UniProtKB/TrEMBL annotation:
Classification via CDD domains: HTH_XRE (cd00093)
Any one Gene Ontology molecular-function term assigned to this protein's record: DNA binding
Pfam family, one: DUF5753
Entry superkingdom: Bacteria
Residues in the signal sequence: none
Protein name per its UniProtKB record: Helix-turn-helix protein
Amino acid sequence: MVRRRVLGKQLRLLREQAGLTLEEAAPKLHFSVSKLSRIENAQVVIDIHWVKSMLDVYDVGGLRWTELLELAQEANQPGWWQAYGLGNNSYIAFETEASRLHEFTVSYVPGILQTADYARALMRAVPLQRTVEQLENEVAARIYRQRRLTAADNPLNVIVVIDEPALHRPVGGAEVQQEQLGHIAELAELDTVALHVLPTAVGAHAAMPSGFMILNFEDLDEPDMAYVEHTLGALSLDKAGDVTRARLTFERLLSDALDPTASLALVRRLAGGEFIRRSGRG
């Protein structure tokens, strides 16, 4: 989806450089104005033959021709998430193209750090109708995302801030939560993961109502995007003002949170048995 947006922007720029308006270019391409607009705004799958026609009309050749056709081919490749029944407008489609993720969660562990049992328990708690197959596909896709944390090529660098109460909430039961804490501790030792815990003792903080993510597409020269999950759905924000506000909020959370060393020590302590004792099982 992100590469399609990049391609659309490049095609719009080439049209403008050719001195053509939408209304002037569309008939030359045998497109309607609305179709050309949808292409440039990445609202449709962009057929490679359309791209060739546009490059001809805009008098583009040489290396630029080759680069844009390669980009069109990449943009049309099916994403791995589609095998799990997820669409191209899903959050995962954007995260897959990102180089960095900043995430704050209030009441649960970030998806990029979850175990299968923890993710399954979370999903079952949400009153959303799913078949067993759909549930297991979503769990599998969530776990698949973690491959990029250890990938040699195109790794995802993550900074997470977890509100401390999420570490004490027995999602799926005490045993599932303890396993989850151990998994966080393991992932926090990776070079790609920076773990921060926001202590309960901080009291009121900058993001009380909800968690959020910020995705950075540095390698694609695309602007950052903020993403908010809430009880009734999700919202993506790409306006500069909204993303700047999200970035400043995240920086404030980081300033209030424990550093990675202290955060890891807390998680290890809970994973080592303190969580079970607090849950009344020991």
